[in-house]
Structure formats: C-alpha cells, structure tokens
Amino acid sequence: MIIDCHGHYTTAPRQHEAWRAQQIDAYKAGKSPPPRPGITDDEIRESIEGGQLKVQRERGTDLTIFSPRAAGMGHHLGDAVTSEAWASACNELIHRVCSLFPENFIGVAMLPQSARVSPRNCIPEIGRCVNDYGFVGVNLNPDPSGGHWQDPPLSDRYWYPVYEKMVEYDTPAMIHVSASCNPTHHTTGAHYLNGDTAGFNQLMNSSVFKDFPTIKFIIPHGGGAVPYHWGRYRGLAQDAKLGLLSDLMLKNVFFDTCVYHLPGQELLARVIPADNILFASEMIGAVRGIDPETGHHYDDTKRYIDQLPLSAEDKAKIFEGNARRVYGRLSETIKKQSAR
Ligand SMILES: [Zn+2]
Q: What is the pTM of this model?
C-alpha cells in the first residue's frame, strides 16, 4: 500500500471558501456571518474524482491522509470565534470526503487557532475530529499570526494542552503554518519552509520529548532547511550540551517527502534514516506545474523515491510502514473505513 501522508482539500467546492470570505467580511463589519452554504455529495464527489482521486490513480498511490487547505486556515484572520466556526466547517467537509471515499482518504484536523489565544481552545475540536470523525492526526500551526511569530515557541508550556491530547489520542501533529500576511514572507516559497525549520529548531531546544516521550511530529516539505543543514543542528546540539541530535529528535520527529526534485530527495534519504521518512506529495498543492527537465509534475514525488538507491524494505517503510507507526490510529482506521 502506498500512503501519502500530506494532502489538502485544495479543490473544495467554491461556495466553501466563498463563505469564509463572507464570514471575515461580517466579522470586520461587526455583524453575524450568513448561514453556511449547502454543499451536495455530488459536488464533493466531482471535486475529488476530477482532482485528488484522479491523481492518486495516475500516480499509483492508494491512500491520502487528508486535511483542509493549509493556506486557507488563515489563523491570523478574525478571532477565536471565527476560527472555531471555520475549522469546524473545514473539518466537517474533510469528514464528508472520507465518508464518500473511505478507501482513499483518511482525515487530519485543522485546529481553530488564533494568534495569542491559548491553544487550549483547540481541545474540543480535536476530540470531535478523533472521536466522531475518525481522524488520525492534526495540523498544528506554530505561527497563527501568519508570518509575525507572535506566539511562544513550540517548546513553551503554552502548547502543552494540545500535546496532552495528541498523546492521549495517539495522534501526531504535522507542524504546518498557514498563509503569510507578512509581505516579506511568501506563503509557499518562504513562510512554509521557515515554519518547518523553526518548528524543528524550537522542539530541539525544549523538554517536550522528556515531558511527552511518545509524542510524534511530522515536519513537512522535506523538513524545510533541516536535512540540508543537519550538520549545523548536530553542532548546535553538541555546543548546547543537548547530546546527539539523532538521540534527541528521531524518536519523536519525522520528515515527509514533499521535496520537488530528485537531488533533494537523495539528500533527504542520505541524511535522515529511512525509519523517519514518510512518503508525501502534497499533490494539487503549492507547485502544480510540470518540470521541463523531467517531463513530469514536480509534485509527483513517488517517481523520485522509486529512483533512490534504497532497499525494498526501506522503501516499504517510507511508503507505508512508517505512516502506520507514526499515525497510531491509522491501521485500525484503514480497517474500519475499508469495511464500510
Ligand atoms: Zn501542506
């Protein structure tokens, strides 16, 4: 089985995001938002069959761990109330996708975060998504201010209410920022990779893994700058007397393969042990074009991994085994959803 651990519903029916714009306009005008629009099962089917499912079939992958559109989370917009209503609408839509296509999609939750609002308010939504929807993880935004970094680092106890729930439910978090509202940081070109890199570095300088020995984080987009600069982080850990970086991080931190060229994948697989790499493409996401050097989509990441000089055993871990291990509820959810 080939499990893509990083997909977003980027093709959601248009009225979904149109409502979000109305909701934020209403917030700015001090009014109540209009009722949420109706979305039919057929509209959802169409958006998936012509989008993510089509790409799964073309590329020979089986299952996508699926969450709301990341740049659309917009935690810097509105307030805690708008974030809660929006997260709830987005997660419900993901649940409907997973119910219509139970063999192809398993959900991950977006959280109702807001800048400088305690993440404690995310707990009810985590509970609903795990218990009622059968989701297997969450996306945790380390910078709900959208590029201004106004909240404490992930090392701070500020985040512990979310970590406690992650451990209780055996659900990992992908550290994933949303859109940037800071013009110096392009959303997918800088802010995403900065978020990945900063998130790793914040966790490295923390006692999170001492306090939560079984917690698991996935750093997306190939780990941002981390694998390329592994020597720097090893040296920083050594200088700070934190011990070996691999001992410090690799029981709890995993990297996805959203790296859009072969040399980058080669580096990732050389630096990071196969046990810590999870297959992912973020298809129909940030980079949708075709690479003229290869004639294939940049985000068709399976092609790169197929070419890596790894054993069949290691590739099986990357494509399937590690996802089942890191997402503690995944195997059971796969069984449940395919029995439908
Ligand atoms: Zn993403």
A: 0.97
What is the C-alpha end-to-end distance of the chain, expressed in Å?
A: 18
Ion ligand 1: residue ranges with CB closer than 5 A = 70, 282
CB contact at 8 A, 112 and 88 = yes
Residue 205 burial by Cβ neighbours in a 10 Å radius (0-12, 13-18, 19+): middle
Question: 1-14 pLDDT, tens per residue?
Answer: 999 999 999 999 99
Output phi, psi for 296, to 5 deg.
-120, 160
Angle at 278 between CA 273 and CA 281, to 5 degrees: 130
* List 17, 84, 103, 282, catalytic entry: 282
Q: What Cα–Cα distance (Å) separates residue 134 from each residue in 1, 79, 128, 130, 297?
A: 20, 27, 9, 5, 32
Ligand 1 mean position to 238 CA, how many Å?
31
> Among this protein's residues, is 282 annotated catalytic?
yes
Cα(149) to centroid of ligand 1, in Å? 19
Task: Give one DSSP letter per residue of 246-296, joined into a string.
Answer: HHHHTTTEEEE----SHHHHHHHHHHS-GGGEE-----SSS--SEETTTTE
Summarize pLDDT for 179-204 with one digit per residue, the tens.
999 999 999 999 999 999 999 999 99
